[in-house]
Amino acid sequence: MPRRLHFPLFAAVMLALPALPLPDFWITQLNSIGLYAIVSLGLVLLTGVAGLTSFGQAAFVGVGAYTAAFLSTKLGVSPWLTLFIGVALSVSVALLLGAITLRMSGHYLPLATIAWGLALNYTMANMDWLGKYDGILGVPPISLAGFSLGSGRGIYVLIWAIALASALAVTNLLDSRPGRAIRAIKNGTTMAEAMGVSTFRYKVIAFVLAAVLAAVSGWLFAHFQRTVNPSPFGIHKGIEYLFMAVLGGIGHVWGAFLGAGVVKIVEDQLQVVLPRLIGTSGNFEIVVFGLVLIGVLKYVPDGLWTFVTRWFPASARVRDWQGAAPLVSRDKPQPGELLLDVDQVRKEFGGLVAVNDVSFQVRAGDIVGLIGPNGAGKSTTFNLVTGVLSLTRGNVRFRGESVAGLPSREIARRGVSRTFQHVKMIPEMTVLENVALGGYLRSSSGTLRAMLRLDRAEERALFAEAERQLQRIGMAGQMHELAGNLALGPQRLMEIARALATDPALLLLDEPAAGLRHKEKQALSDVLRQLKSEGMSILLVEHDMEFVMGLTDRIVVMEFGTRLIEGTPEEVQASPVVRAAYLGTEH
Ligand code: ADP
Ligand code: MG
Predict the structure, then answer these.
(1) Which of 29, 91, 394, 511 could be 344's S-S partner, Cβ–Cβ 3.0 to 4.6 Å?
(2) Looking at the structure, do residues 228 and 345 belong to the same domain, yes or no?
(3) What's residue 278's pLDDT?
(4) 119-168 per-position pLDDT tens digit
(5) Ligand 1 within 6 A of 374 CB?
(6) Nearest residue CA, atom 25 of ligand 1?
(7) Strand 352-363 relative to strand 143-144, pairing
(8) Looking at 338-431, which runs of residues are DSSP E strands?
(9) d(Cα 481, Cα 497) in Å, to the nearest integer?
């Protein structure tokens, strides 16, 4: 069955179920599963895709549920209006919490989510006007076009329509310009920022979307249960939502549904079976879940969804970009124009002077080599030029304008693009999608457009550009392969194509030939010569002297952070200082 039919078929089956003579109990179970799935879908986006772990999602469910319950019972506000207000409130809370916590790194963010999860839940449980621990009773049913969605079957359709629509929206988002930006932040922010992406902005977007999904689930929950109290919004429930997503497959949209289904069904069974086994009742299913979670993380880290994809191997997404309009391109510098002016730059790491007042220039149309033994400060110099590291002293000017102190995405916007000594990519995306990330700054579709699939014309233009760049470096044949499956050589070439897709005025390549076989090195130097003949300006870090000699117009030699000498390849080769430096380290 073609892949594009999977979703409509699944949606049709799910939405037709209440018309069948199923027992009410099943419908109720499916309602809970749908509600859970909406929340864990948010976690797939936030934790699975963006790499930001949250234990606090249940609190956002509470925000949606309490808004609905309070406004409809106390003030008689229509449920449709409370949905709107609940979502707006969750967005505000998420923006506030996100602004404070999303800049935290490592384990601080998950810890912070526990803190605010507890705080929000505590607030719900201690407010007189929210009914304290008793909560709010008598929430009215939702009615839609005169029909009351009070019964299990009525609200079922609404729950599952929203769950399926959300899944579709998130699927669309992941296959889009903002989606690629979100996928790029999981393995560190340096590469995404170098492609012009504000990673903080996309962290906030993922966080807000996850909060909105949770709040919508809470709104449905309040009208489904017809009552709210603080306990379903506590931190234990937040952990359970995360468990569902991890169990199902935290990197996959449908893993959220699978995890929600399995957890709900197993939880009910355990509540019956465990007391019989142990002889007393209590929340022992939590203990079982804890043990299962450890097992899943150890043995099936990608979750149960991997078993499903094994039965239905994914066919490649069909892409078609015939006749796509070209992306905008920048005015190119005139040959000989002073492009990059590195002026007395210095970088100290504590007591270590990694770059010691180094100066050099790159003019348009030139290939300049930056060479020197390991640890000479070449990569650090690159990081200073591209804004990855801040200068201790000195200045960097690009096309006459000082770029010192600018974040690297702003330097990228001005036309500097780079590759990395250690390849940085999104291994689970195709080569084509990785290269399309390079077109980020030349396109504009935002999150909402992407979720509604209104971005297709621009997407075609991005893929056409990505293919063009892959052709330019002779890699078009591998564009549909997963980047993570490539050998090191093609991965390095892919990074060059991605950098080219930014339409740079200056290309910075950090050891592009490292780890390549002799033949691959030759192919690479052909590609670089070709780029030069097309007018590209390149600053090239390289360890391999031979590779650089035949390729560059000028060479800057560094050792121990200082500039040793600058000159033509012949001058450098003849220099006794350089020989000493190289012989000194190679032996
Ligand atoms: P190269 O690229 O020429 O091999 P690097 O620029 O990577 O050299 O490193 C230059 C020196 O700076 C090395 O001694 C390295 O250990 C040190 N260094 C690089 N990055 C950091 C960092 N983030 N913190 C501390 N020291 C660093
Ligand atoms: Mg280096």
Answers:
(1) 394
(2) no
(3) 76
(4) 999 999 998 889 888 899 989 988 887 778 877 888 999 999 999 999 99
(5) yes
(6) 349
(7) unpaired
(8) 338-349, 352-363, 367-371, 393-398, 401-402, 416-418
(9) 15
Residues lining ion ligand 2 (Cβ < 5 A) are 378-379, 421
In a domain, 304, yes or no: no
Looking at the CA of 374, name the nearest ligand: 1
Secondary structure string (H, E, C) spanning 101-170? HCCCCCCHHHHHHHHHHHHHHHHHHHCHHHCHHHCEECCCCCEECCEECCCHHHHHHHHHHHHHHHHHHH
Tokens 């560190």 correspond to: 188
User: Do residues 498 and 510 share a domain?
Assistant: no
The last residue of one of the domains, among 483, 503, 523, is 503
Q: How far apart are CA 462 and CA 450, in angstroms?
A: 14
Same domain, 492 and 550: no
- Contact (Cβ atoms closer than 8 angstroms) between residue 579 and residue 572: no
Q: Is the CB–ligand 1 distance for residue 443 below 6 Å?
A: no
Return the ∠ at Cα 461 (arms to 456 and 462), rounded to 5°.
95
What CA–CA distance (Å, rounded) separates 214 from 38?
A: 7
47 and 14, same structural domain?
yes
Whether residue 447 sits in one domain with residue 353: no
Same domain (yes/no): 431, 552:
no
| Phi, psi angles (nearest 5°) of residue 125 | -80, -10
Per the structure, the count of domains in the chain is 3
**Please, are residues 374 and 585 in contact by the beta-carbon 8 Å criterion?**
yes
Average pLDDT, rounded, for the chain: 91
Instruction: Answer with the one of 180, 215, 233 that is the final residue of a domain.
Output: 233
Report the C-alpha gap between 274 and 291 in whole angstroms.
Answer: 14
Give 376 Cα–ligand 1 centroid separation in angstroms.
Answer: 8
Cα–Cα distance, 224 to 217 (Å, whole number): 10
Task: Tell how far the Cα of 357 is from the centroid of ligand 1, in angstroms.
Answer: 15
Residue type, 126: N
Angle between helices 199-225 and 152-174 (to 10 degrees): 170
If one residue of 349, 390, 564 were mutated to test the ligand 1 pocket, choosing by the most ligand atoms within 8 A of its CB, it would be 349
Structure tokens at 233: 């919004």
Structural domain range at position 92: 3-233
Q: Identify whether residues 464 and 584 lie together within a single domain.
A: no
> With a 6 A CB cut-off, is 508 part of the ligand 1 pocket?
no
pLDDT digits (tens, 9 = 90+) for 547-573: 888 899 999 999 999 999 999 999 988
Instruction: At 222, list the tokens.
Output: 């309040």
Dihedral sign (CA 280, 282, 285, 290): negative
| Domain assignment present for 299 | no
Pair type for strands 143-144 and 147-148: antiparallel
Is the pTM value of this prediction over 0.90? yes
